[in-house]
Write a structure and sequence with these properties.
With 412 residues, the chain is α+β, with helices and mostly antiparallel strands. The chain has two domains: 2-50 and 272-410, no CATH class; 57-269, no CATH class. Helices cover 55% and strands 17% of the residues. The chain has 14 helices and eleven strands. It has helices at residues 2-13, 15-49, 83-91, 131-135, 147-151, 161-168, 198-203, 211-219, 237-251, 267-310, 312-320, 325-360, 375-401, 405-410; strands at residues 57-62, 95-103, 111-115, 118-127, 138-142, 156-160, 177-180, 183-192, 206-210, 226-231, 262-266. The chain has a six-stranded mixed β-barrel with strand order 3-4-9-6-8-7. Strand 3 (111-115) and strand 4 form a beta hairpin. Helix 2 runs antiparallel to helix 10 (267-310) and helix 10 (267-310) packs across helix 12. The longest helix has 44 residues, at 267-310. It is elongated and about 105 Å long. It starts with a helix and ends with a helix.
């Protein structure tokens, strides 16, 4: 208790100097927490755009060749077929799910769909039931298309959330019939996307029907637009994509070095740079915050050096009457630690409060969502603060020990 009283008296002796020094520490920790919180909000927002996609997802489709091969000229259009799915399955390892997809009118095309007096332009997709496990759609009403629907070529569909909003205006769509190109389909379910942004908008404007029904009702052939594939966890998506393309090049007689005959995309290409960006943001945040915090800690160390110089005579008297060096060291380091902790606490709380306030105030968008400060980050910052406080007091304490009692007593 006496030690705390001495520390309080010492800090109060020059209150303005103490407050200004404490502000430097508070500001350093405040900036560290704020930048990390905003960085986490950026990471949450970007990851939200791709929620539902994992790094082992990939997509392959046909394009136009750019090299002549096996008697074919360049510019030949490669069109994938249902039979290509079994061909790939037999020749490529690591395939967990391979879902052929066909879209009426082609990618990005809308088709007139009617329900009573309501009309909208939506994407009509022919799919197998497993496609839901690729995109991880969430069923909000009814059910998704199932294997029986596929086997029996039933005229049923699962509609996206946006389709329900436009056509049904709050009505229950389950069991109702919608008209697509003059053909009636019964709605058995409604799904939504787990993602956000443009991808979610596309997913929720789709109408999913069994592939077998699609081929009989609209296509009349077995052509597909692309393959959506999920790899097993222990396989590299890029390697699997390369193997799938290699197999399809052989089947469709595409030059092995043709870069354009087959198109592909795997989520790893997207997530790799994203993860590196997030790591860079965190490193920069810690660097900026720590540099600012170090500046504050240097201020604490300086004020303690001044304090030691001002109290030279006091320290000499204490040494002369038998005070142990340990007592002097404990007092000075504890004083620096208390000053650092009090200042750091206010900086920490202010940073957390501002980050939480930004989240609650709705400062969010597609690329920024739910800014937050994780508990490990706060604990780490607190540990750094304690360590910094001890270091701030070490140099002044070491200087105090070098003060000789006789010289200190003569000090004015």
């Amino acid at each position: 208790m006496e030690l705390l009283k001495e520390i309080y008296a010492s800090l109060r002796r020059n209150l303005l100097r103490t407050i200004l020094t404490a502000f430097g520490v508070s500001w350093g920790l405040f900036m560290l927490i704020l930048i990390l919180g905003l960085g986490q909000g950026l990471e949450n927002g970007v990851k939200g755009l791709f929620q539902g996609f994992s790094t082992n997802n990939l997509f392959v489709w046909g394009q136009s060749t750019s090299l002549p091969y096996a008697g074919f000229t360049e510019g030949r259009r490669i069109r994938l077929k249902m039979e290509d799915v079994d061909y790939v399955k037999e020749r490529v390892d690591g395939l967990k799910i391979i879902a052929p997809r066909a879209q009426l009118g082609g990618y990005g095309e809308g088709n007139n769909v009617k329900y009573k007096n309501e009309t909208g332009a939506f994407s009509i997709q022919g799919d197998i039931p497993e496609v839901r496990n690729v995109y991880q759609w969430v069923q909000v009403d009814g059910r998704f298309i199932n294997q029986t629907d596929y086997d029996q070529s039933r005229k049923v569909c699962s509609i996206g959330k946006r389709v329900k909003e436009v056509l049904f205006k709050g009505e229950d769509p389950i069991g109702e019939y919608i008209s697509m190109n003059g053909i009636q389909f019964m709605v058995v379910g409604c799904h939504k996307s787990p993602t956000s942004g443009d991808q979610a908008e596309r997913d929720e404007q789709q109408i999913i029907i069994p592939m077998t029904t699609y081929q009989k009702a609209f296509d009349g052939s077995n052509y597909i637009n692309w393959m959506a594939i999920v790899c097993h966890d222990n396989f590299d998506a890029q390697e699997v994509e390369d193997n799938v393309k290699a197999a399809l090049r052989v089947k469709h007689k595409v030059h092995p070095d043709d870069p354009r005959g087959l198109g592909g995309f795997n989520a790893k290409k997207m997530f790799g740079p994203m993860q590196m960006t997030f790591k860079t943001v965190r490193v920069v945040a810690w660097f900026v915050g720590l540099m600012t915090l170090i500046a504050g800690i240097i201020g604490v160390s300086n004020i303690m050096l001044v304090s030691v110089k001002e109290r030279t005579k006091e320290i000499g008297i204490r040494r002369a009457i038998g005070a142990k060096p340990r007592n002097i060291i404990v007092q000075i380091i504890t004083e620096a630690l208390i000053l650092t902790l009090i200042a750091g606490y206010f900086g920490l709380m202010a940073g957390i409060w501002l980050v939480e306030a930004l989240g609650k105030a709705g400062f969010e968008g597609q690329m920024f969502k739910n800014p937050e400060v994780e508990v490990p980050v706060a604990v780490t910052a607190l540990f750094i603060l304690i360590l910094s406080g001890c270091m701030a007091g070490f140099l002044p304490a070491n200087r105090a020990l070098r003060v000789k009692p006789v010289e200190a007593l003569r000090y004015e």
